[in-house]
Amino acid sequence: MNLVVMKFGGTSVEDPAAIGRTAAIVAGRVAMGKSPVVVVSAMAKVTDQLLCAAAAASQGDRTGALAISSRLRSRHRDTAACLVKSADGGPTLMQIIDDKFAGLDEILRGLAAIRELTPRISDLIVSHGERISSHIVAAAFRECGLDAAHLDAREVIITDSEFQKAAPLDDLIEKKAQENVLPLLRAGKVPVMGGFIGSNAAGLTTTLGRGGSDYTGALVGGALNAETIEIWTDVDGIMTADPRVCPDALRVKVISFEEAAELAYFGAKVLHPATILPAVRKSVPVMVLNSRNAANEGTRIMSTAPHCRSPFKSIAVKKKLTIIDIVASRMLMTHGYMSKMFAIFDKHKCPVDMVSTSEVSVSLTVDSNASLPELSADLSSLADVTYEGKKALVCMVGEDIRGQNGIAAQVFAAIRHINVRMISQGASEINMSFMIDEDDADEAVRSLHAAFFRDPDPAVFDVEARKQLSVISGQ
Ligand code: ADP
Ligand code: ASP
Ligand code: MG
Predict the structure, then answer these.
(1) CATH of range 314-473; options 3.30.2130.10, 3.40.30.10, 3.40.50.880, 3.30.565.10
(2) Is the CB of 244 within 6 Å of ligand 1?
(3) Ligand at shortest distance from the CA of 217
(4) What is the C-alpha to C-alpha distance for residues 140 and 91, in angstroms, rounded to an integer?
(5) Which atom of ligand 1 is nearest to the CA of 291?
(6) Average pLDDT, 10 consecutive residues per value, the chain (475 residues)
């Protein structure tokens, strides 16, 4: 069986036209003799809106929460009406949509009365995005002649009970995928399931964290030993920088698992940070492709990438970070000091991105939404603590910086007009990162891009697209 997992992000299912393109792409794979398993996100922006509804309800704004739900219901109904004309056997798609929204409204009403939004209720609310989009996509596929079968992702993606950031339980997922997905494939069907959502041992709904549909795609691909995992999105692949920040970013044709994981972790939104792990474990290649430009060959993520004469493959930026400065009057680096400090970060489940130390101080960077006041109160038992938000981490990734002299000098020359707060060259030796003010981040990326991608290696980067663009713009 030539099993391919195809994950489509929010923009690839955002409206009837996008779902139509998605159906054509999947039909193309079936025509090539492939057996696709399709994983879909919620329609674009739906997760954000569901979170707004949850926030409104938890503040007692019942009317506001129900109004958001009502707008979402209309959007999903309109999309369904446009795509599915024939009676589909069993409950109609409209009934399914109405049932799901009736359930959602009931939860929102309850929440408005209780006014306490727990992570568990939040997950239950946001799960509606993927639960409903997957039904619409499956029905739209059938309308286009594909033999699609809807599958509830919560019957496959089994996780722990860490609501909002649940960890998948690989062995159970493998078993469930074999029990629930393989029979559909053997019957010649195209299974369609929602990404992002799962369930714990007690059957309660969990989510894998924002952007988690990529992760679902990779988990299913890993569990079923897929031939390839395809991540379909709204850009041509992994680019040399976020094209929204740097319009002349180039597509990276091939990148290593290690480089892609580093980029995702350090803010390249195009992939969820954990996506690569299940694929690496089973050596399943991952492709990043554009559902608006399906003919483009995208980016191939492989265990080893070819040598590249440019030191970096891409520049990622992680915003909304905070620098915590810990200053002790007596010598910091006494035995056991660091472990006491990290035990506090551990207690608050707060991951640290970057650390730099001097004789009497330690600076660390964390996500700004971490429980900073509580964290800093605990740290104050060890030393004086100050923290400063609105920081960004710029991370330049490439395996070919290994062993090259003078790269750091070139990096800092390119951004000499920007104030750099902390610097680190990762132990992995494939990234060079530094911390700056958030407001300087876009400018820093553009300056670095201009300096390092002036003469890109055509074996690794799509330089043809840049040439075509300059012909069109007459440059
Ligand atoms: P999806 O909904 O398909 O999961 P996302 O919005 O999560 O899509 O990710 C795609 C977006 O990631 C792109 O539109 C782009 O703006 C952003 N992005 C950030 N960094 C990069 C990069 N290096 N290469 C490509 N896209 C990037
Ligand atoms: N819908 C979820 C989100 O917006 C998951 C995803 O799209 O990957 O975060
Ligand atoms: Mg995404």
Answers:
(1) 3.30.2130.10
(2) yes
(3) 2
(4) 15
(5) 3
(6) 96 98 98 98 98 98 98 97 78 93 98 97 98 98 96 98 97 98 98 98 97 97 96 98 96 95 92 90 94 97 88 95 85 72 90 84 84 88 90 94 85 94 78 95 97 94 79 56
